[in-house]
Design brief:
Largest sheet: 9 strands, mixed
Structural class: alpha/beta
CATH topology of the largest domain: D-Maltodextrin-Binding Protein, domain 2
Organism: Xanthobacter oligotrophicus
InterPro entries: LysR-type_TF_proteobact-type, LysR_HTH_N, LysR_subst-bd, WH-like_DNA-bd_sf, WH_DNA-bd_sf
Order of helices and strands: HHHEEHEHHEEEHEHEHEHEEHH
Radius of gyration: 23 Å
Number of strands: 11
Number of helices: 12
Number of domains: 3
Family: Belongs to the LysR transcriptional regulatory family.
Helix content: 25-40%
Pfam families: HTH_1, LysR_substrate
CATH architecture of the largest domain: 3-Layer(aba) Sandwich
CATH class of the largest domain: Alpha Beta
Shape: elongated
Protein name: LysR family transcriptional regulator
Distance between the termini: 71 Å
Length: 303
């Protein structure tokens, strides 16, 4: 098969449109269209369904895509091995991560990686969802649980702590909190129940069973901002609340939640230089911040 044709199929599958695929490949969209047509002619099978909303692969297209991506990966791995993979890396790595970890922990630290590897491009998708690396939603995924299946390389990066926080202004206006039962007299901020993407975020009952959150959001950063505005109490990771001195932790010795971060890559991609080096960098940065992750910041302590 013509490799240019297969690259067009890969680019269309990832971009969803002819224009996106053309931009990726650095060609005109008419060239991509011609290559797809040539591929379909060569194998005498329809591979792509064209619609106003974009392009979608047929079942045959999906099967061929899997084979094409395997070829692509083998070529990239061979190039890494031949050229001396640790001398310099280039290309794009997409990292999928929870919103707070991506925006507040990882993003500010990426300067060190990109200064070391100027040929690397990092795409950070920081949003409250799970990422499927097998379906190429990300090259590297940061997850709160270990995946149950798939040809994946998974390692536990770290554990992090969470506590209950409120703004200094909110706490000054409302009844004092001396014990767990006192929490039930306060307004809470939490996730939207039916939009929680992993059971690890369903921790309200661990703190105060039966409490209803008056404000709910699928985004942890939105929850934090609402807490800062004085809307109510919110369960936040220590590392995130530590960026806001106006948030104060309550019952720090009583309410101590712990969760884990896992880093996930495809088995076939683990030796790609750009993936391996980026994953190692993220793991190293997390390991450097053990105290920040597991202890409330002094800025958040009351008194």
């Amino acid at each position: 098969m013509n490799w240019d044709y297969l690259q067009a199929l890969i680019a269309v599958a990832r971009g969803g449109t002819l224009s996106a695929a053309a931009k990726t490949l650095g060609v005109k969209h008419s060239t991509v269209s011609r290559h797809l047509a040539g591929l379909e002619k060569d194998i005498r099978t329809q591979l792509v369904i064209r619609s106003p909303g974009g392009l979608k692969l047929t079942d045959a297209g999906l099967r061929l895509l899997e084979a094409a991506e395997t070829m692509e990966l083998q070529a990239q791995t061979a190039q890494d091995e031949i050229s001396g993979r640790d001398v310099s890396i280039s290309g794009t790595v997409r990292v999928g991560a929870p919103d707070a970890f991506g925006a507040f922990f990882l993003a500010p630290r990426l300067i060190r990686l990109l200064d070391q590897q100027p040929g690397l491009t990092v795409q950070l998708v920081a949003t409250p969802r799970s990422f499927n690396v097998t379906k190429r939603e990300a090259d590297i995924a940061i997850a709160l649980t270990m995946p149950e299946r798939g040809r994946l390389v998974t390692r536990k990066m770290a554990v992090y702590g969470l506590g209950v926080y409120g703004s200094a202004a909110y706490l000054a206006r409302h009844p004092s909190i001396e014990k767990i039962e006192d929490l039930k007299r306060h307004r809470f901020i939490n996730y939207i129940d039916d939009l929680i993407f992993t059971r690890e975020l369903d921790y309200m009952d661990e703190v105060a069973a039966g409490v209803h959150a008056a404000f709910q959001s699928s985004n942890l950063i939105a929850q934090m901002q609402a807490a800062r505005a004085g809307l109510g109490l919110c369960i936040l990771p220590y590392f995130l609340a530590g960026t806001c001195a106006d948030l104060k932790i309550v019952l720090p010795d009583t309410v101590q939640l712990v969760r884990s971060w896992w880093i996930i890559v495809q088995e076939e991609q683990k030796n790609l230089s750009r993936v391996r080096i980026t994953a190692d960098f993220i793991t190293h940065e997390v390991a450097r911040e053990t105290q920040t992750l597991m202890q409330p910041s002094p800025l958040n302590l009351v008194g």
